[in-house]
Specification:
The chain is 66% helix and 0% strand. The chain has helices at 28-51, 55-61, 68-87, 95-101, 120-123, 126-148, 152-159, 167-170, 174-180, 182-197, 203-209, 218-227, 231-258, 264-290.
């Protein structure tokens, strides 16, 4: 039986004793630079290994990076992505380098005490994990499928010079797309649903509960109306916005810089599909968490 939510009667808490974890003994100033070096090296290794298996398809459409700004742009963006994950306190991105250099957050730490995580039984329930992963994967597959069968093929032909074949878009099937998007669904679930469902009430919740419009200043009233949400809602909004912005910009940059014949507007259209899928996934997982 799926466990019920553990929200009723929960007292506001502004702190807890975190689970005992082992963290890196390196100085703080060295950790992020080391993360960047490890991540870039790991990515280069994977690209080198993948090139042996995808020479035909990728070689025909890949753009040679002959300009220094192109290489620096990709490397710089990669470092920005890592910085968002590192300084934003996210456990996602390249998992292994992050795991070696700092401990996991309580919501992703299997050894964390139940008192450190709200709804501990829900986020660790296997059926819930499977259902929410498949739900997120389904959203991505439906968004891509709908794009394939409506506006995207014509848009790609117009904005990608030398587009060779779009038959794959017309032959796409939802079951096949769903299977291919399961890893993305799992990542979206772990990035949005788990941290938001496991978020504990904090000082912000106490302040929002005590808000009195009769005595509040204009600034306090505006702030309450704009950002006076529960902690869980704030986590979902922040992480969904991060997913939309980072995945959208990353897709645009990777497409425009590395695909031969890609126009800026064409890359924007393709990246918009992924940004829309991320936004819809966040909204649906928000709704699921409230059920």
């Amino acid at each position: 039986m799926t466990p019920r939510k553990e929200m009723s009667g929960q007292a506001v808490s502004i702190g807890y004793a975190p689970a005992p974890v082992t963290t890196s003994k390196l100085p703080n100033a060295m950790r992020f630079p080391l993360l960047a070096i490890l991540s870039l090296s790991f990515s280069s290794l994977l690209y080198t290994l993948a090139a042996d298996f995808a020479v035909g398809e990728l070689a025909g459409v890949s753009r040679s990076l002959n300009e220094w700004w192109e290489v620096l742009g990709l490397v710089g963006w990669r470092i920005v992505e890592l910085g968002v994950g590192w300084y934003g306190g996210y456990d996602a991105a390249i998992y292994l380098p992050f795991r070696f250099l700092r401990p996991l957050s309580p919501t992703h730490n299997a050894t964390a005490p139940k008192s450190a995580v709200a709804n501990h039984s829900i986020i660790n329930d296997l059926p819930v994990r499977i259902y929410t992963t498949l739900l997120a994967a389904s959203i991505y597959s439906v968004v891509v499928y709908a794009s394939y069968y409506t506006w995207l093929p014509v848009y790609l032909v117009v904005h990608f010079d030398g587009m060779r074949n779009i038959s794959a878009a017309h032959s796409a099937a939802v079951p096949a797309l769903l299977a291919s998007f399961v890893p993305i669904g799992y990542a979206a679930r772990e990035f949005i649903f788990t941290p938001s469902t496991g978020a504990r009430m904090d000082r912000g919740d106490a302040i929002a509960s005590a808000f009195n419009p009769a005595t509040a200043t204009l600034g306090e009233t505006v702030w309450h109306n704009v950002w006076g949400y529960p902690k869980r809602t704030k986590v979902i909004i922040e992480r969904t916005a991060t997913l939309v912005v980072v995945s959208g910009l990353n897709t645009w940059l990777q497409t425009y810089v590395t695909i031969e014949g890609a126009e800026g507007s064409g890359a924007a259209g393709w990246s918009g599909v992924w940004a829309a899928a991320g936004a819809l996934t966040g909204a649906v997982l928000w709704w699921v968490g409230d059920v």
